């Protein structure tokens, strides 16, 4: 009988098993001091230089809930952290302890806040802190607190010079890390580091044309620099989008970007786009193509240009095609779009009774 | 027998045609997506082999056991959530609520006392006793107390101090930081709006500028990012939209592009939802994303939209249920992101919440159920509000928190769930 089978009936063990599986294999990162190396670790309660401080156990009350089975190391560090907090101690040893506390739980925002207080009170070297936070983020790039801390340090230093490279390094490991992109946008906007960003975006899109975060960054850069009102810029962007679409017609990001940059102006106002897409339809077909055509038709109807009846008919046909064949997962949505267009743009006689009392649809359609 | 098999969408003949098409262009995104689809295929075919007649079953007993134990004890694997303990209370209590498993009064009372210890002298709640106040555990604590719904629970909340705390994190541009000296993002607006409305402490200035700020988070994709400029993301979109609904300003958003964006987030093969375009399915988006559809339905209805369905939300309810039931359950209890991932209380909470949304359609006068699999899979309906929440009642007096004389699960205004203090990005 395997271990898995043995633990199957013991939920909490299985959870530990699973959870350990996930956290195993992480190297012990040592940036500061070697008090953490397994061989030589000494609890704070046994350190003579801490003997003057009375540790403060956590006050969970007599009947605790969601009680975590902290390791001895965890309890020890946090008992002393609470003691420091209680005394509002602002010392070097307090500063060092925060690193231990962070190592045990980097999501403890109270510890981070305290560390920042100490950084200022002790006038610590912020460049060293930047090196520290760099290492922590590399290790735990999906944590809110570490990025916020980095931002604070960069702000205090007024030194963004390392940021773009650092973030690029994080993105090279996970090109869609939301915190990384957030930090990147903040740095660029705050310190006006727009130069070269569009090139960076293009590089990322060459690596993965489906990277939606990169498409978003593209929009971010352009809308904050040249804007899309410049016809040359718009033409370039439309051209770029269509090129990417042709390379991978099922890449949703390229389609949504194309729509995104044209929707405020009106999809139907971009000269020749409808014709171009209709031509592309046979070789570059996809549900996104069909949906885009619906959107253009809808815009034509909205701006009341051209033959309304004919356009509406085409649009409704495509909605039905999407609902029944090409995009059935969104059947309810496309049906709604069809009904909505019908009621809004349909001939007056037909539009008299919007279809409210829709019978519940069968599970199997078609 | 054939019929029964194909009753489930994921076992239909043409389901394979929904597999991702990479157009011969392989990138990290397409490779990852195909890997997940491969895993799902394995799970589905294993299920078919083991079940002659597919009838997905919600493992109620196992989930309850997992939840009840977690409410008392958690392994040291949970050290990383030591600054999110009110969240653990909330995720567990809400899950039990959905499963219609009442928590004995002794435990509820213990939860009340624990949360009282998490409350800060300066107002708001912290991630644990002795920590600093933060909007996320504040949200979790207040909502957990409202689930308990006893006098003891309501009396834990120091409303005056809570109001002071909210003012202390309010920013001039209408946004809120998550805690003093902390970061801004749209979660905070939702946390603030939720607790303020539940405890009846909304003043005329508390949310000044907030709707405008939230609107600025809506981007070119139609969804909302965490702060203006960022990529549209399910968790943040839920928070933004829900906050706007609570503040009565949902019509300031472009509802139709939002609708298009969220409807597009349902995965055609997996049936579950992704958090962002071109990313992977995850069970928790069953709430953050699917939960937007009832909100949008009501918002559009309020706007006078006549074309709304009277039978269904604008997403594939059956497909989502199948994904959750067949791919997101741990046989030992608890739910999860996707096959291969570990269970946790966060995913348990939001998978169940999403399952409830997918099972119940309705509004003021209508309630239609679509329960996939065993009838016993039916969860408590949580998808739509009593209109008392939207009436002016809650603004009238400050003396007591809004008490619900209807069962809590009917009175909840919205999907109260939201982002955790722990990053899920």
- Structural class designation of chain B: mainly alpha
Strand order of the largest sheet of chain B: 2-3
Could you list the spans of chain A in which at least 5 consecutive residues all have pLDDT below 50?
1-35, 350-366
What count of domains describes the coordinates of chain B?
Answer: 1
Uncertain ranges of chain B? 385-425
| Mean pLDDT figure of chain B | 90
Largest protein-protein interface: A-B, 101 and 106 residues
CATH top level of chain B?
A: Mainly Alpha
What sequence of helices (H) and strands (E) makes up the elements of chain B? HHHEHHHHHHHHHHHHHEEHH
Looking at the chains present, what oligomeric state does this protein adopt?
A: heterodimer
N→C terminal distance of chain B? 42 Å
GO molecular function (chain A): CAAX-protein geranylgeranyltransferase activity; protein farnesyltransferase activity
Keywords (chain A): Acetylation, Magnesium, Prenyltransferase, Repeat, Transferase
EC number (chain A): 2.5.1.58, 2.5.1.59
Family (chain A): Belongs to the protein prenyltransferase subunit alpha family.
Highlighted features:
heterodimer, A: 366 residues, mainly alpha, 18 helices, B: 425 residues, Glycosyltransferase, two-stranded antiparallel ribbon, globular, disordered C terminus
């Amino acid at each position: 009988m395997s271990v898995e089978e043995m633990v199957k009936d013991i939920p909490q063990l299985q959870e530990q098993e699973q959870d350990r599986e996930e956290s195993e294999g992480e190297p012990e990162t040592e940036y500061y001091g070697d008090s953490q190396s397994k061989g030589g670790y000494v609890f704070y309660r046994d350190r003579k230089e801490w003997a003057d401080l009375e540790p403060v156990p956590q006050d969970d009350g007599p009947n605790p809930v969601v009680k975590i089975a902290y390791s001895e190391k965890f309890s020890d560090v946090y008992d002393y952290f609470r003691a420091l907090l209680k005394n509002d101690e602002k010392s070097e040893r307090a500063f060092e302890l925060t690193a231990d506390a962070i190592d045990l739980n980097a999501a403890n925002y109270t510890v981070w806040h305290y560390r920042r207080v100490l950084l200022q009170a002790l006038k610590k070297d912020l460049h060293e802190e930047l090196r520290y936070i760099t290492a922590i983020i590399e290790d735990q790039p999906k944590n809110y607190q570490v990025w916020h801390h980095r931002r604070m340090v960069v702000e205090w230093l007024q030194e963004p010079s390392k940021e773009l490279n650092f973030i690029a390094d994080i993105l090279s490991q996970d090109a869609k890390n939301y915190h990384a992109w957030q930090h990147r946008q903040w740095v660029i906007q705050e310190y006006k580091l727009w130069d070269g960003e569009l090139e960076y975006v293009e590089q990322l899109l060459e690596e993965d044309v489906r990277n939606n975060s990169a498409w978003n960054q593209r929009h971010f850069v352009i809308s904050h620099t040249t804007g899309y009102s410049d016809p040359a810029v718009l033409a370039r962007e439309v051209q770029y989008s269509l090129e990417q679409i042709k390379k991978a017609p099922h890449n949703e990001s390229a389609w949504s970007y194309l729509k995104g940059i044209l929707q405020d102006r009106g999809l139907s106002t971009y000269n020749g786009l409808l014709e171009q897409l209709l031509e592309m339809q046979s070789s570059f077909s996809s549900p996104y193509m069909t949906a885009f055509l619906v959107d253009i038709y809808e815009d034509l109807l909205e701006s009341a240009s051209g033959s309304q009846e004919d356009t509406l008919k085409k649009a409704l046909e495509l909605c039905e095609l999407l609902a029944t064949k090409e995009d059935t997962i969104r059947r309810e949505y496309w049906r709604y779009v069809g009904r909505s267009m019908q009621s809004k743009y349909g001939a007056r006689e037909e539009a008299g009774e919007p279809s409210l009392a829709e019978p519940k649809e069968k599970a199997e359609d078609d | 027998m054939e019929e029964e098999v194909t009753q489930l969408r994921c076992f239909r003949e043409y389901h394979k045609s929904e597999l991702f098409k990479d157009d011969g262009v392989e990138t990290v995104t397409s490779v990852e997506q195909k890997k997940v689809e491969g895993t799902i295929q394995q799970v589905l075919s294993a299920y078919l082999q083991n079940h002659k007649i597919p009838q997905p079953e919600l493992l109620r007993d196992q989930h309850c056991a997992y939840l009840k134990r977690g409410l008392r004890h958690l392994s040291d694997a949970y050290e990383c959530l030591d600054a999110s303990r009110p969240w653990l209370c909330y995720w567990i209590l809400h899950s039990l609520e959905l499963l219609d498993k009442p928590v004995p009064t002794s435990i509820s009372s213990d939860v009340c006392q624990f949360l009282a210890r998490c409350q800060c002298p300066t107002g708001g709640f912290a991630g644990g006793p002795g920590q600093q106040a933060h909007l996320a555990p504040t949200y979790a604590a207040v909502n957990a107390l409202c689930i308990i719904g006893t006098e003891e629970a309501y009396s834990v909340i120091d409303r005056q101090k809570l109001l002071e705390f909210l003012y202390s994190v309010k920013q001039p541009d209408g946004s809120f930081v998550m805690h003093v000296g902390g970061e801004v993002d749209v979660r905070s607006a939702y946390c603030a709006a939720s607790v303020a409305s539940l405890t009846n402490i909304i003043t005329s200035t508390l949310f000044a500028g907030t709707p405008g700020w939230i609107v600025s988070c809506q981007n070119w994709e139609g969804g909302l990012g965490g702060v203006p400029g960022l990529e549209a993301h399910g968790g943040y979109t839920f928070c933004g939209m829900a906050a706007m609904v609570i503040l009565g300003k949902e019509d300031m958003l472009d509802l139709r592009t939002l609708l298009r964006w969220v409807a597009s987030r349902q995965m055609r093969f997996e049936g579950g939802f992704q958090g962002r375009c071109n990313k992977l399915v995850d069970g928790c988006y069953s709430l953050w994303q699917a939960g937007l559809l009832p909100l949008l339905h009501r918002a559009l209805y309020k706007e006078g939209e006549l074309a709304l369905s009277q039978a269904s939300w604008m997403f594939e309810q059956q497909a989502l249920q199948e994904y959750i039931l067949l791919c997101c359950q741990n046989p030992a209890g608890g739910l999860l992101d996707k096959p291969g991932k570990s269970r946790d209380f966060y995913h348990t909470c939001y998978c169940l919440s999403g399952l409830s949304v997918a099972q119940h359609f309705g509004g003021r006068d209508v309630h239609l159920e679509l329960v996939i699999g065993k009838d016993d899979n039916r969860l408590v309906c949580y998808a739509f509000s009593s209109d008392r929440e939207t009436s002016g009642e809650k603004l009238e007096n400050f003396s007591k928190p809004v008490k619900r004389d209807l069962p809590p699960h009917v009175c909840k205004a919205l999907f109260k769930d939201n982002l955790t203090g722990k990053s899920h990005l």
